[in-house]
């Protein structure tokens, strides 16, 4: 049980791989209000939306807000005009000639609300790109001719909801598997409690993924990473189906970090035979070697890129469809349409639970294949050509 003996290394690997330094990818706002509603209100030439059209826009905004990152958790709203919200703010950490740390509740909820003030400096979240800019006491954001904001942008190290859930998942994994490791020592290598559920999964990853694809000689040095990414992706995907609205793996920064770490491990642990088959493929005519070398080298970059896109696209698409079906329940508003939309969303939710596990399995399997190709040894191969 290599995974259980080194919990600190796994926690470090998870945080290292998934810590989005600036929290900018897939960045949303701290409220469901965004550009479309603001544009209608700000430009008199735009037509005034009817009540049904306004509700449609509101549903679109809510779906987008559910998918994007933000500086607070917004669980649901209630009231006639949804004037009351249930959720909680997160810490905002900015570097602007020193650290500025304050709660995201200081930010206003509209385009013209007062900005957040800290230490005599004022900051505001733009509703155009979801990023934080330095501004004045009136919250002025200056735009150039191309529509880009010219205000100074401080370094954003805030704990957004995606980063918050990354920490939650990492701590959960640490506590869960550290406890499993202790139960092994106390009970003569017999798992107790929740470990009885997770032990077969760990053994499956070792016996059916790592050993067949990497080999018994080299699989142990990759097991910690394979187990970490499997459970991290699985747990993150499951949290994405909760009312918290955290779509971690639907964020390119997260899936990109996973893919990048997979690429770095493959690259720096690869044996010379791996590089020989890329730059000087044995058994191939010399002119073809010069043609195949750049293609093979490009392939090493395309592989982790496909890992990133596959996980991101599958999880994002599932959430979009699921949220759209839920919105359809309110749109239909009939004795037939609403129950039908509910049934479809319920079935899709069950399917998403399966997809959450399937995507973790696929990512782990492909990573094991890449590690296997990097550690594979070729003996006297040229003699057979």
Placed side by side, the strands forming the largest sheet appear as: 4-3-8
SS content category: mainly alpha
Number of strands: 8
Number of domains: 2
Radius of gyration: 25 Å
β-strand percent reads 5-15%
Shape: globular
Q: Secondary-structure element order, as H and E? A: HHHHEEEEEEEEHHHHHHH
What would the average pLDDT be, to the nearest integer?
A: 76
Note the main sheet. 3 strands, antiparallel
Task: Please report the distance between the alpha carbons of the first and last residues.
Answer: 41 Å
Explain what the structure shows.
This protein has helices at residues 2-5, 7-18, 35-42, 51-67, 161-186, 195-214, 220-239, 252-269, 272-279, 286-332, 337-375, and strands at residues 72-78, 84-89, 91-95, 99-103, 116-118, 121-125, 132-135, 155-156. With 385 residues, it is mainly alpha-helical. The chain has two domains: 2-16 and 162-384, no CATH class; 21-159, no CATH class. Strands 4-3-8 form a three-stranded antiparallel β-sheet, with no helix packed on it. Strands 5-6-7 form a three-stranded antiparallel β-sheet, with no helix packed on it. It starts with a helix and ends in a 10-residue tail after the last helix. 31% of the residues are buried. Mean pLDDT is 76; it is low at 1-5, 10-46 and 380-385.
């Amino acid at each position: 049980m290599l995974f259980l003996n080194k919990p600190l290394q796994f926690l470090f690997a998870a945080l290292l791989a998934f810590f989005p330094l600036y929290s900018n990818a897939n960045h949303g706002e701290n409220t469901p209000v965004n550009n479309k509603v603001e544009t209608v209100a700000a430009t008199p030439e735009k037509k005034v939306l009817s009540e049904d059209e306004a509700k449609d826009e509101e549903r679109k905004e809510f779906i987008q807000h559910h998918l994007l990152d933000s500086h607070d958790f917004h669980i649901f709203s209630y009231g006639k005009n949804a004037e009351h919200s249930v959720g909680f703010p997160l810490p905002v950490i900015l570097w602007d000639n020193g650290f500025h740390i304050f709660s995201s509740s200081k930010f206003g909820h509209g385009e013209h609300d007062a900005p957040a003030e800290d230490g005599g400096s004022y900051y505001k979240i733009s509703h155009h790109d979801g990023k934080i800019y330095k501004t004045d006491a009136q919250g002025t954001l200056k735009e150039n001719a191309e529509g880009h904001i010219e205000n100074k942008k401080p370094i954003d190290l805030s704990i957004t909801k995606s980063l918050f859930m990354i920490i939650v998942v990492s701590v959960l994994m640490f506590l869960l598997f550290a406890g499993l490791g202790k139960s092994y020592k106390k009970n003569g290598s017999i798992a107790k409690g929740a470990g009885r559920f997770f032990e077969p999964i760990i053994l499956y990853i070792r016996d059916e993924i790592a050993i067949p694809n990497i080999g018994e000689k080299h699989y142990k040095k990759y097991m910690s990473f394979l187990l970490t990414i499997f459970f991290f992706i699985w747990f993150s995907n499951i949290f994405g189906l909760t009312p918290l609205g955290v779509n971690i793996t639907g964020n390119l920064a997260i899936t990109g970090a996973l893919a990048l770490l997979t690429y770095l491990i493959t690259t720096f642990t690869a044996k010379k035979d791996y590089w020989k088959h890329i730059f000087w493929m044995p058994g191939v005519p010399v002119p073809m070697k010069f043609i195949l070398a750049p293609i093979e080298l490009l392939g090493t970059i395309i592989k982790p890129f496909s890992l990133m896109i596959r996980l991101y696209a599958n999880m994002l698409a599932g959430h979009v469809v699921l949220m759209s079906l839920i919105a359809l329940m309110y749109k239909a508003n009939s004795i037939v349409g609403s129950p039908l939309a509910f049934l479809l969303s319920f079935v899709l939710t069950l399917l998403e639970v399966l997809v959450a596990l399937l995507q973790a399995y696929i990512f782990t399997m492909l990573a094991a294949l890449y590690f296997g190709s990097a550690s594979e040894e070729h003996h006297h191969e040229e003699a057979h050509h």
